[in-house]
Design a protein that fits this description.
Layout: H1 2-14, H2 19-36, H3 39-51, H4 56-63, H5 67-72, H6 77-109, H7 116-148, H8 155-169, H9 176-182, H10 185-212
Length: 216
């Protein structure tokens, strides 16, 4: 476990030069929430933006030829992968908490009402979307690297646009199951957490397998 946290700390040190960019990434979606007057779309946009920064650690490692350093570190490849996933999840969780605090405050100041259902549904959607983006991005970066795998950076953009399309096109009440989930914040959050855990388990397993088959 200690080796996993060492890997997390190493990733934190790698992204230090990008702290200002990441902070700007978390602030910009506030403008989107104001324009649309919607907490759900604001949080979705925030998670899309923060997911686009997940390639920083891979980019720094590749540009500075740090593969050899990782190769001589007394850390198992599985620990390295789990550590990076934990680091990415911490980034996403931090962005989500920041957005769940700032977006409602700004919207309330503008006269919008935010119910508990709005708050929980936005949180659940943000958690699910961030996981959905990153579970595909990280194995892609491990497989192709940050340069060749740059296409994976645009997965959040495509996902965000699809999400907006679904939000505006799916009629609520058309499906009894969808109706039950949407009108039960607890069930919605529980479903999101279960799906996120399952997706990350599969994604981590794939990434570990990819890394073990590569020479670093």
């Amino acid at each position: 476990m200690s080796n996993i946290w060492k890997s997390v700390k190493l990733d934190f040190s790698l992204v230090k030069p990008y702290v200002k960019t990441i902070c700007f990434t978390m602030i910009l979606p506030v403008v989107f929430a104001v324009i649309n007057r919607s907490l759900l779309t604001g949080i979705s946009f925030a998670m899309c933006f923060i997911a686009m920064t997940t390639g920083y650690t891979f980019s720094v490692t590749e540009k500075n030829s740090m593969e050899r350093l990782y190769g001589i570190l007394p850390i198992r490849k599985s620990d390295m992968v789990i550590g990076r996933y934990i680091f990415i999840i911490i980034m996403g969780f931090t962005a989500l908490i920041f957005s769940l605090i700032t977006h409602p405050v700004v919207l309330i100041i503008l006269g919008e009402s935010i119910s508990m259902f709005d708050y929980i549904s936005a949180a659940a959607t943000g958690i699910f979307l961030f996981a959905l983006y990153t579970v595909f991005q990280l194995p892609g970066y491990y497989k192709l690297g940050s340069i060749k795998g740059r296409v994976f950076m645009y997965i959040p953009v495509a996902g965000f646009l699809i999400t907006l399309l679904l939000i505006t096109r799916i009629p609520v009440g058309e499906s009894k199951l969808l109706f039950a989930v949407i009108h039960s914040p607890v069930l919605l959050m529980l479903l999101a957490v279960i799906l996120v855990i399952a997706m990350y388990v599969v994604s981590i397993s794939v990434s570990i397998k990819i890394l073990k088959n590569k020479e670093i």
